[in-house]
Amino acid sequence: MTQAQANREPAQGAGPIIQIRNVSKWFGSHQVLTNINLNVQAGQKVVVLGPSGSGKSTLIRCINRLEEFQEGEIVVDGHRLKEHGQLEVVRREVGMVFQQFNLFPHMTVLRNVMLAPMKLRGLSEKAAEQRAMTLLNRVGIAEQAHKHASELSGGQQQRVAIARALAMEPRIMLFDEPTSALDPEMVGEVLDVMRSLAGSGMTMLVVTHEMGFAREVADRVIFMDRGQLLEDAPPAEFFGNPRLDRLKQFLNRVSRH
Questions:
Q1: The ABC transporter domain covers which part of the protein (predicted)?
Q2: Which of 56, 69, 78, 91 is most buried, judged by most C-beta within 10 A?
Q3: ∠ CA(187), CA(174), CA(230), 5° rounding?
């Protein structure tokens, strides 16, 4: 048995694919996450809502340790995130799409999508190109493959970013406010790609302000405020019969915008 196998918990069929246990995080003296507990089953779509500064982006960034956390434990597909040698394994299984697209502007769209599978998965150039073109077609942007990323609209760049994340064949996709930097007319094209991905059975955690997407796609909707996870419910219950006064206040406020 390898050290990685020794560190690994039972396979995801025996439990959640993501387990967050008593996680707390501070920036200096400011606590931004307080005793977070959350389990996500394989194939679930979980949407995380909350006001700015509630800790929702910090939480999903902890799942692949783009942010460090000081207390608690996160287990991804059986791998304990803080165990030695597990971080790179987890990052190969978790794709992430950010608010900013983070593409290489001097590269073509095609090369942006090919790069990580070649460097990190050891794919040949031919195999990486075939995979990239398949994914660019999937997100509806194959005709832009040979343009430089800087020539594309924001919505097109975000679709490339999704294709780039999928090129690593992740088991889990994290989205950190993927439409918030887009012009309103470009939001729909990105949400359409995310709906299609959700329909394929991908495990997804999505931080967003898109209430319609949450109602339509989510299996569960989570509400965070001041670093605490306050509600976790199916969309019909979350939006139709909110229990908490703080959640009612939040939903009333966002419904007016």
A1: 18-251
A2: 56
A3: 95
